[in-house]
C-alpha cells in the first residue's frame, strides 16, 4: 500500500511522486509535498463579506432564496441560529423556523 496523499482536487487515490511533486493522473493536478500537509486541515468557510464562519454562529440571509418543494421563499434578513458547517456545495446545515432543516450556501449569508 502506498502512503501517498489523495489528490486535493478530485480525491483520486492514484497519485504518484515525481521530483518532489505529487501528481494526479486522473485530473492532472500537481502539488508540492508542503502543500499536501496544508490540505489535510479543515477547509475555511467564509460568508458573503469574507468573515470566517464556525459551528454555532448566527447568520442572516442576504437575498431572497427560493426553497425547493415549497411555495414560499426564504426572505432577506431571516436569522439562522446555531449553524453547523458541513462539506459540499451547500456547506451550512441549519434549522429555520417555519421551514425546518435546510442546507444553505455560505455565499448567501452574512455573519451577525
Layout of strands and helices, then pairs:
Elements: E1 16-18, E2 21-23, E3 30-32, H1 33-39, E4 59-61, E5 65-66, E6 73-74, E7 79-80, E8 84-85, E9 92-96, E10 100-104, E11 109-111
Antiparallel strand pairs: 1-2, 2-3, 4-7, 4-11, 5-6, 8-9, 9-10
Determine the CATH superfamily of the largest domain.
Answer: SH3 Domains
Low-confidence stretches are none
**Structure summary, number of beta strands:** 11
Q: Structural class of the helices, strands and pairings?
A: mainly beta
Level of helix content?
Answer: under 10%
Total helices: the number is 1
C-alpha Rg (nearest Å): 19 Å
Q: Give the tally of structural domains.
A: 2
**Mind describing the biggest β-sheet?**
3 strands, antiparallel
Give the CATH architecture of the largest domain. Roll
| Topology order in helix (H) and strand (E) letters | EEEHEEEEEEEE
End-to-end span in angstroms?
A: 47 Å
CATH class of the largest domain: Mainly Beta
Overall geometry comes to elongated
Strand content: 25-35%
Key structural traits:
112 residues, mainly beta, N-terminal domain of TfIIb, SH3 type barrels, 2 domains, three-stranded antiparallel beta sheet, 1 helix, 11 strands, 29% strand, YjdM, YjdM_N, YjdM_C, Protein YjdM
Walk me through what this model shows.
By secondary structure, this protein is mainly beta. The protein folds into 2 domains: 1-37, N-terminal domain of TfIIb (Single Sheet), CATH 2.20.25.10; 56-109, SH3 type barrels (Roll). It contains 1 helix and 11 strands; from the N terminus they run E-E-E-H-E-E-E-E-E-E-E-E. It has a 3-stranded antiparallel sheet with strand order 1-2-3. Strand 2 and strand 3 form a beta hairpin. The protein is elongated, with a radius of gyration of 19 Å. The mean pLDDT is 88.
Amino acid at each position: 500500500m502506498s502512503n501517498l496523499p489523495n489528490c486535493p482536487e478530485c480525491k483520486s487515490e492514484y497519485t504518484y511522486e515525481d521530483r518532489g511533486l505529487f501528481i494526479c493522473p486522473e485530473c492532472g493536478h500537481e502539488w508540492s509535498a508542503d502543500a499536501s500537509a496544508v490540505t489535510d486541515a479543515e477547509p475555511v468557510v467564509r460568508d458573503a463579506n469574507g468573515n470566517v464562519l464556525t459551528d454555532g454562529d448566527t447568520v442572516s440571509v442576504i437575498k431572497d432564496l427560493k426553497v425547493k418543494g415549497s411555495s414560499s421563499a426564504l426572505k432577506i434578513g431571516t436569522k439562522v441560529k446555531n449553524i453547523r458547517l458541513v462539506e459540499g456545495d451547500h456547506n451550512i446545515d441549519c434549522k429555520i423556523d417555519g421551514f425546518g432543516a435546510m442546507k444553505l450556501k455560505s455565499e448567501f449569508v452574512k455573519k451577525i
